[in-house]
Design brief:
Radius of gyration: 14 Å
Number of strands: 6
Strand content: 15-25%
Oligomer: single chain
Structural class: alpha/beta
Largest sheet: 6 strands, parallel
Helix content: 40-55%
Number of helices: 6
Amino acid sequence: MSSFDRECVCCFTGHRPDKLGVGEFSARSLLRCAIRTAFKEGKTVFITGMAEGVDVWAAEEVLLLKREAPQVSLICALPYSTFGNHRAAAERRRYNNILSAADCRVTIAQAYSRSCYQLRNIWMVDNSSLVIAFYNGSPGGTRNTLTYAADKGVSIMNILPT
C-alpha cells in the first residue's frame, strides 16, 4: 500500500443487500457512476472489503473500468484469511474471480475475531481519501465506518437514493 498516494485511493462501504432497498442492477448503476466520477477526479486505486453486496458489486465495476483504464488498481481488504469460504457456490465463484483479478490482497487478521471487520474498515479508511457509501442511516458497520471516516477528515460520497 505504501506505493500509492492516499489522495488517489477510494474505498467502499455499504449495507448488505437485504438492507439496501434497491436491487443489484440499480445499485451497480449508481456504483458505476460514482466510481467513474471518482476516477475523473483522480482516484485510481480502489479498496473493497469484499462483503456480499455493495463491496462485491463495486469490485466488479472497478474491474470493468480497469479494462478501459489499465492504470486503475483494485485492492481486496479481507477481514480474516478464510473470509468468503462460507458463501454459497455461485457467490464463492464470484468472490474468487474478483480475488484473482485484483492487483493486491490485504488480510487484516489470520483468524476471525469480533473486531476483525472493524479493523478492516479502519484500515480501508486510513488508506483512502474518499469513501463511496451506500448508507441508509441505520446502525451497524457502515455507520461506524462513516463516523470513523468523518472523524479522520476523509471525504464521503453517499450514493444511496433517499
